[in-house]
Structure to design on (251 residues):
């Protein structure tokens, strides 16, 4: 079922103390009931974050995982390892993973399947670059990303999948898609899902928007009928701005 969700992607920010401080600050904020809140710190701080959020309604996600369960993959982390420390959600397909680490649809398809096999929830990110949008190809690009990484899955798999539309030109740039642009793409994603699967699934899947969401624009974006919440980068690194974004949710 669609559910209001705001997730903070901390990327490669916050050392051990800074993470603990940010979690403590977040716990002291009043967060709107009915909105699911999640944070994704770096791997090294994940286990401590699970401990520190034990007594709070704040979920914990990893920012990536390897597609294998274990083995000779120096520097990598598996879904089994994440599960063993109590992490049940993983962000996959983030544009920075695609751009800087060469992650493509085939690899992401494997990662998604691996995460699902471990019983994890996946927040699957995708979105077009500015050249695609300028060329009017953004719908085609998004359709190809969904098809390439997800459309092998059966309908039941989507109980464990949240989609996150993140136009690359809006990530960390301060440039946000307008509420109308976000709504237009989210509606397109639902119609594309309906074509591949069913109208029911298209209506049930949770679709987040990500890209320079801030306290001053969150309410309008989250108020769009096909936007179910947000994936937040920069503004999730300050407890008050992240809380203000959560609290901007019109529920
Ligand atoms: C992100 O990296 O997923 C993101 C949306 O970043 P920002 O909010 O900083 O644009």
């Amino acid at each position: 079922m669609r559910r209001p969700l705001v997730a903070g992607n901390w990327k490669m920010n916050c050392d051990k103390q800074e993470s603990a401080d940010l979690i403590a600050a977040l716990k002291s904020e009043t967060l709107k009931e009915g909105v699911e809140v999640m944070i994704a710190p770096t791997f090294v701080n994940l286990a401590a974050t699970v401990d520190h959020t034990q007594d709070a309604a704040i979920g914990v996600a990893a920012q990536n995982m390897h597609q294998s369960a274990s083995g000779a993959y120096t520097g990598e982390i598996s879904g089994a390892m994440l599960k063993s420390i109590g992490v049940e959600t993983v962000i996959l397909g983030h544009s920075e993973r695609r751009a800087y680490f060469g992650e493509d649809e085939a690899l992401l398809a494997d990662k998604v399947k691996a995460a699902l096999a471990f019983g994890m929830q996946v927040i699957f990110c995708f979105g077009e670059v500015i050249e695609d949008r300028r060329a009017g190809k953004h719908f085609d690009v998004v359709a190809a990303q969904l098809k390439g990484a997800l459309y092998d899955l059966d309908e039941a798999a989507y109980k464990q999948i949240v989609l996150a539309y993140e136009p690359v030109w809006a990530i960390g740039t301060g440039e946000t898609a307008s509420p109308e642009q976000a709504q237009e793409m989210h509606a397109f994603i639902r119609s594309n899902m309906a074509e591949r699967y069913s109208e029911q699934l298209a209506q049930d899947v949770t679709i987040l928007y990500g890209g320079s969401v801030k306290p001053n624009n969150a309410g309008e974006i989250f108020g769009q009928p096909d936007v179910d919440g947000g994936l937040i980068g920069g503004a999730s690194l300050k407890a008050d701005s992240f809380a203000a974004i959560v609290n901007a949710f019109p529920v």
Notes: The CA atoms of residues 54 and 178 lie 36 Å apart. The chain has a mean pLDDT of 97. The longest strand covers residues 121-126.
